[in-house]
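Researcher: Here's my situation. A collaborator sent me these components and asked whether they could plausibly form a single complex. I don't have experimental data yet, so a predicted model of the whole assembly would be a useful starting point for our discussion.
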Amino acid sequence: MTPLLLSHYTATSAVGCGLEKTLAALHNGTSGLALCDFDTVDIETFVGAVAGVEEEAIRHDLRDYHCRNNQLAQLGLRQDNFSAAVEAAIARLGRDRIGVFLGTSTSGILQAELAYRHRDSTGQLPADFIYATTQNCSSVSDFVRHYFSITGPAMVISTACSSSAKVFGSAYRMIESGMIDAAIVGGVDSLCLTTLYGFNSLGLVSAEPCRPFDVDRSGISIGEAAAFLLLERAPAEPASDDIMLLGFGESSDAYHMSSPHPEGLGASKAMEMALASACLAAADIDYINLHGTATPSNDAAEGAATRRVFGSSVPASSTKGITGHTLGAAGGLEAVIAALAIAHNFMPGGVSEMQLDPAIEIDYLTRNREQPLTRVASNSFGFGGTNCSLVLGRA
Amino acid sequence: MQKLLAYIEGIGAIGPGINNWKEGQAVLCGDVEYHPQKTVYPAVSALPPTERRRTGKVVKLALSVGLEAVADAGQTANDLPAIFASSGGDTYNCHAIFETLASDDRSISPTRFHNSVANAPAGYWGIATGSMAPSTVVCDFDASFGAGLLESLAQVAVDNRRCVYISYDIDYPEPLNSARTISDGFGVGFVLAPQQSASSLYALELTLTQEKASSCTSQILEALRLGSPAARVLPMLQVVAGNETARVVLDYLDTSRISLTLTPCR
């Protein structure tokens, strides 16, 4: 593919709002996970909740969009001068030449969950429940589009936990085809009962902070995040510190609705396609940010797939012990983490003392490694067997 | 103005009183009088029985129109990237989960949960067809059909590869129906190709426009178009059904619409 410039990016997750706090948590191995006290949830688990989401007041002209997911989106947009970068791009390119492509799995579904608790005696939902701008999956892309008064193409991709990785492919095609010149991509997913009780029903939620690739890993810790990146055509002569989207690969497992293919066949296909799209070989990758959810089956399948594509000598780790599994926002959040790793010359390692699973033969980092790196691969896989890998790096 | 081009090679359709594209074509070109009846959702025989039992209306609708389009194009599904577009996904499953979560016992069944993801039809599509090709799922409220078409044409043009595009929506049960009314199930599938070939049915040229969306030629079809996000395709299908050359404007966002120039290939 023709590389695209990541001209600006930001992330907000359980470890804090903005890049500085994200970077500090990655450097120090600080986890944002805490015992779950979200809403009325009675599951024994840890979650990565973002502080300040509930206090975030949705801009008055957009008040119909009020829900946790859009509050988190707005909190995210206000960090790292991201909004100023978008306004500058609008001034340079035009409102109709910028697209919005965001990933989410549940969007503002919490608003409907709460509305169902407040049904009246005839079973009707409360009058202040606004479906279109809250519960509907696309409310977050619609919110961001209206936040900036952008008039280019806008949509949500909702493919569970690969959602906000796949938006990079959609944005790339829309830019490459000439329909637009730049795109806001990323993901926003927020805590809700559907995912907490849903993953719990599958026995995939851990009672302790998640431990990806640990021999005793026992499931995921659900988190929430908002990650935004501004993608543009790369300059003819990129600056030495420019970071680019170099490649992406997508595949399907065609295997099972809620379990990955045991040997990770779909996953390795996505990684191979991402390398091919970037015109790179496995040896060109310095670090892999794994999907690494800490479920027994994901990490085993992803480990097998990663070993098949990259061998066992490319350093790899999952950062979900730090941020939790932010589901539809994970691809976007981890693309930002990949960019931070490249910009700050380090590979983030594990978060706590761990006993690596000896059955998974990859070079899993348990400690940070300070080292210049130029290319990073990032994996995102989801329910229904949907896989996406990205390659980011210097030009 | 920037354009996207593609060739339609196959079509599938299901809606109220329309059980396949052939029936839809007859209604849309005026050969047969339209008598809407409740949408019928066929069982998907391509799915293994265990999976088939777990599927609701939305998966049956999406897979049926997709498989019909692929068969109509004379293609096999297992090497076609698939693009799915829907506003609401599995609305009945969604309602059942909300009811459970609002009750004293919040235990959701695992099947309900995995069916709740917007990409459930894409997952079942992979299982039914064995396709490991990429699939994606687009959601854009009333703009869902347009957003999926734009995504599909961009994939065809940039990846220079055929794809199957499937757009579908079903009604909501109460109480959500009062907050978001979708009249009845409607789904449409297309196989789209980057080059003209012997199997090309129609050439499509897409641009974005500020114009108002085209209406359907009869009141009853116009009600269907406005009643379901997926049925926003109808002005395009009416042209294709009549084998006409025409330009239509399809509904999309509040700030832009999709202009399609349609030219028959045979």
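Model: Some features of this prediction you could bring to your collaborator: The domain at 9-199+215-244 of chain B is CATH 3.40.47.10 (Peroxisomal Thiolase; Chain A, domain 1). The first strand of chain B starts at residue 4 and ends at 14.
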